[in-house]
């Protein structure tokens, strides 16, 4: 199943479908094919597929354009149907924990256990005399099944369905030496959600998704400038304000920045013990490309802010006729898909 010389990874977001093919090894991966396609507005809302045929057509078109031969696919799930909690459990081995975790989940996940897919990772096997720290992940089974069936209807075999925020951590760790004692805030500013993770070394202390994202700016532009959603999207994508009022534009941007700042401030109480702030913030997603966002966050939180470059160590084929995007420019958007692909390489 794993260790294939070629890996297909598809990140289906609420606005963009990112399809990539990776070759090589886990230490020297190289992206050989890449396509980004746009979904209609409201095709996916809150992680739920609303317009299934449009999503299928978008993925199918990408597979055709890239002449993809792979039949196994790695993908991810995100949105309100996924819950991540760091919990404490009595000390036990992994096999015992796998049996016990479903009972623990009843205390922390607001769904019936039989209605969710559960996974976990032991973060710290020894906390005190008789406890261990565990990262618990629960996803609604119908949301998981919807994604699996989506790929199966395209004659693809989904072999891994990861959580999008974890794939972002994968690509960050691949490109950077991670240090214990240094806290990184990973913020992926997507179309409908911003995924926030607190990373120390290889430990994920906290992950949450909040509905303050690029759509928030689209709505602010519509409200302040009196324009429709399509024009707002064009302004965000191109940076060209056209004939809209400069004052209205600035009001919209400042409103979005403030909403994003407040959303981050609300999770600061969850900083792990011993930390009062991040040592660094790393942003990705389409929202990271909005002019002024890195500078705003740096000023607001008093810590260095970097736009993620997932191609520090991860290479791509500069001669490939199947890379249909400006890789350097779109890197922050491709980051989760690249992190997913690492799950399939040895």
For the report, how would you describe the main beta sheet? 6 strands, mixed
Beta-strand residue percentage: 25-35%
| N-to-C SSE string, H for helix and E for strand | EEEEEHEEHEEHEHEEEHHHEHEEH
Task: Name the strands of the widest sheet in spatial order.
Answer: 10-6-1-2-3-16
Helical residues, percent: 25-40%
Poorly predicted spans: none
Mean pLDDT equals 93
Written description of the protein model:
This protein has helices at about 50-65, 95-110, 140-150, 165-175, 215-225, 230-240, 245-265, 295-300, 325-340, and strands spanning about 5-10, 15-25, 30-40, 45, 50, 70-75, 80-90, 115-125, 130-140, 155-165, 185-190, 195-200, 205-210, 280-285, 305, 315. It is of the alpha/beta class and about 350 residues long. Among the domains are: about 80-140, Dna Ligase, domain 1; about 175-310, 2-Layer Sandwich (Nucleotidyltransferase, domain 5). A 6-stranded mixed sheet has the order 10-6-1-2-3-16, sandwiched between helices. A 5-stranded mixed sheet has the order 13-12-11-14-15, sandwiched between helices. A 3-stranded antiparallel sheet has the order 7-9-8. Strand 11 and strand 12 form a beta hairpin.
